[in-house]
Design goal:
By secondary structure, the chain is an alpha/beta fold. It has 4 domains: 150 residues, Alpha-D-Glucose-1,6-Bisphosphate, Chain A, domain 3 (3-Layer(aba) Sandwich), CATH 3.40.120.10; 93 residues, 3-Layer(aba) Sandwich (Alpha-D-Glucose-1,6-Bisphosphate, Chain A, domain 3), CATH 3.40.120; 80 residues, 3-Layer(aba) Sandwich (Alpha-D-Glucose-1,6-Bisphosphate, Chain A, domain 3), CATH 3.40.120.10; 75 residues, 2-Layer Sandwich (TATA-Binding Protein), CATH 3.30.310. It has 15 helices and 18 strands. The strands form 4 sheets. The chain has a 6-stranded mixed β-sheet with strand order 1-2-6-5-3-4, sandwiched between helices. A 5-stranded mixed β-sheet has the order 8-7-9-10-11. Strand 14 and strand 15 form a beta hairpin.
Length: 446
């Protein structure tokens, strides 16, 4: 059982355990030791004000462990994954808490192949971190400085993205791009500058404290409203580290990751590139997606939540496409992790080649009513050991039967229990979601 790593790295409030300076230093040493003799590590970060001191502290630990460190500066998570693999780094590390508020931060690690580390590797690194914690030198923390930034890394990543969509032109289109005041702010303006059309870049003025604040993929209605206001063709919105993207059609309707999976699956199928006619989604994807894919002769598999688990199932089954409702989309062979900017360009290319609007391309996706209730918890006790919760779940599953789904899980990045129910009957859906949430809140509520 992992104690530090969640579904997407180590996260917490910057300055507090496990993101206090001694633990970050120990993480650096442990990672360097895990990587072997004379490893090279690439660092990147989003726009949070805590990023610089965390980078300095982590660099000090990595260096003490025998590693050399290069920084790509403020850059997206998938950029670090790509650059790590391309340039032969031993590992890539991203300092980011993705969609979390600015006070939070995190440390994500990619292996030399650009893939996120397996759970077994993270557990082994954790054991070393705890061994190192008692011996962290105070002087080393006081003298820590971040490594110099190599600006060429961003240029390299942008060339990779543009090469994925040769011939893409946005001429005649008006596009709105929301950068969430995050890492995309340092990449998207340059990326879209050469594609033609009229591109409005919004929320690209990070202060260190405004990342994800009433913007970005957590608030897709913001870009949707702007698309409708300025009569744009399409809107794109990223999260803080731009490993996911959501969209808006020209009518101002949000187009989520499920719809993108449907669009991309059909496009790949038409080109004969959808291996085994299979798509990997997660337990959170809507039943409507499964039905729409089935009508196109495409099988949908479900993985646990987290793009690393989606990717594991993709690699195990040979699937070419997978992703999450939240906007993490993985194109196997093109990327080793969810990449919001790559997804945005590929969706724009699909729309461009089709000659249709985004709304038309996903118009037959009939979404079952779905609700997600987040319950703050003080501990993550196994839910199947709590009788009142078990009873509430059983009652929901019995009444919904084949006309709905119940998915209850803990967040891998926050102290939350997530209650997701979808059903043909919206009143039943809400009744059972509230019943289960109240049972969890009564037993474990923070």
């Amino acid at each position: 059982m992992k104690k530090l790593f969640g579904t997407d790295g180590i996260r917490g409030i910057a300055g507090e355990s496990p993101l206090d300076a001694p633990t970050i230093y120990a993480i650096g040493i442990a990672l360097a030791h895990h990587l072997g003799a004379s490893p090279r590590v690439l660092l990147g970060m989003d726009t949070r004000e805590s990023g610089k001191w965390i980078a300095a502290t982590l660099t000090a630990g990595l260096t003490a462990g025998g590693a050399s460190v290069e920084s790509a500066g403020i850059i997206t998570t998938p950029a670090v994954a790509y650059l790590t693999s391309k340039h032969g780094f031993s590992a890539g590390v991203v300092i980011s808490a993705s969609h979390n508020p600015w006070l939070d931060n995190g440390i994500k690690v990619f292996g030399s192949d650009g893939y996120k580390l397996p759970d077994a590797t993270e557990i082994a690194i954790e054991e070393e971190i705890f061994r190192q914690l008692d011996a962290v030198p105070t002087a080393a923390l006081q003298q820590a400085t971040p490594p110099p930034v190599n600006e060429a890394d961003r240029e390299d990543y942008i060339r990779f993205l543009l090469a994925a969509v040769p011939g893409l032109s946005l001429d005649g289109k008006r596009i709105v791009v929301d950068c969430a005041n995050g890492a995309a702010s340092n990449v998207a303006p340059q990326l879209f500058a050469g594609l033609g059309g009229e591109v409005a870049i919004t929320h690209a003025s990070p202060t260190g404290r405004n990342i994800n604040e009433k913007c970005g993929a957590l608030h897709p209605d913001v870009v949707a409203a702007e698309v409708k206001r300025c009569q744009a063709s399409l809107g794109i919105t990223f999260d803080g580290d731009a490993d996911r993207a959501l969209f808006s059609d020209h009518n101002g309707n949000v187009v989520n990751g499920d719809a993108v999976l449907l669009l991309a699956a059909r496009d790949l199928q038409a080109q004969g590139l959808l291996a085994n006619s299979t798509v990997v989604a997660t337990t959170m994807s809507n039943m409507g997606l499964e039905a729409a894919l089935k009508r196109s002769g495409i099988r949908m598999l479900r993985a646990n939540v987290g793009d690393k688990y989606v990717l594991e199932q993709m690699l195990a089954t040979g699937a070419a496409l997978g992703g999450e409702q939240s906007g993490h989309i993985i194109f196997n062979g093109r990327s080793t992790t969810g990449d919001g900017l790559l997804t945005a360009l590929l969706v724009l290319d699909m729309v461009h080649r089709s000659g249709k609007s985004l709304a038309d391309l996903v118009s037959d996706l009939k979404v079952f009513p779905q609700v997600i209730v987040n319950v703050k918890v003080r501990e993550k006790k196994p839910l199947d050991t709590i009788p009142t919760v078990v009873a509430a779940i059983a009652a929901a599953e019995k009444e919904l039967a084949d006309s709905g789904r119940v998915v209850i899980r803990y967040s891998g990045t926050e102290a939350l229990a997530r209650v997701m129910i979808e059903a043909e009957s919206e009143p039943l859906m809400r009744h059972h979601a509230d019943s289960i949430a109240n049972a969890i809140r009564s037993e474990l509520g923070a």
